[in-house]
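Team,

Forwarding the record for the chain on the shared tracking sheet. I've put the sequence and predicted structure together so nobody has to dig through attachments.
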Amino acid sequence: MTATAAQAPARRRRASRSRVKRRKLLTGLLFVSPWIVGLLAFNAYPLFSAFYYSLTNYTVLTPPTWAGLANYTALIHTGTFWLSLWNTIYYACVSLPLGLVVSFGLALLLNLRVRGLPIYRTIFYLPVVVPTVAVAELWQWLLDPLTGVVTRVLAVVGIHNATFFSSPVQSMPTLIGVGEWGIGGAVVIYLAGLQGISGQLYDAARIDGASWWGQVRYITIPLMTPVIFFNLIIGLIGALQNFNLPYLFTNGTGGVLNSLLTYVLLLYQTAFQQFQMGLACAMAVILLLVTALIALLIFRSARGWVFYSE
């Protein structure tokens, strides 16, 4: 009886702690419930719906009918599918490394202590806040084959065959160049990382006789690898989903000989011009899987070149 009476307060204390934990859990779930509802309604449901509709014949105006893997088989035997995939890979493989290098170099320059530095930083960041439609209109005016400012400047130096978006050969390099105009966002992220590196490391390196390039190679780049990794992942996702500029520059057609027909632009045409929603959902699923696979490979490789300071 004595032992039982002594155990009763302990059980009550455990029950009280359990009630407190449940109350805290419910309170926490209540606070995050708007985010959970938004995640389920705007992310999880569309994702699983896309998987389902990719296995159906669905044209919006009629109910979906089960088709199995017919949409995926049709894509494999469609030439424009492979062309759009090639254009997207071409764009990503060129623009992504170029953007990483150029934005990192600009960040190094904008991290120097010179007069008027805030003005320079503002100038390089301005293209990021300019609406994409305005950017497209500006560059179409600058690159017009007949009256464009860039065309006239090139003609003065002896280059007369610059047709830019009117040429199936020059259109993709032109698109890549225009895309690099808006790298200010990556520059700002690099600047934040650079300003987090202790100046004592550079002082010690200078005392040891390290040159500017030696400091960048052995201090800046290793300590910036987490930021480079972040920009790499974000840039990869953006490059594979490139849509705005190709659509605006070609009015949604894909350009001359479909030279600017990116994967997402073809997905848009399939879904909202041809109303083949099942086929478009299959394309979306393939894009998701390809992006996830490439990102997974980058994450695995990051173990050997991304260094986190303690």
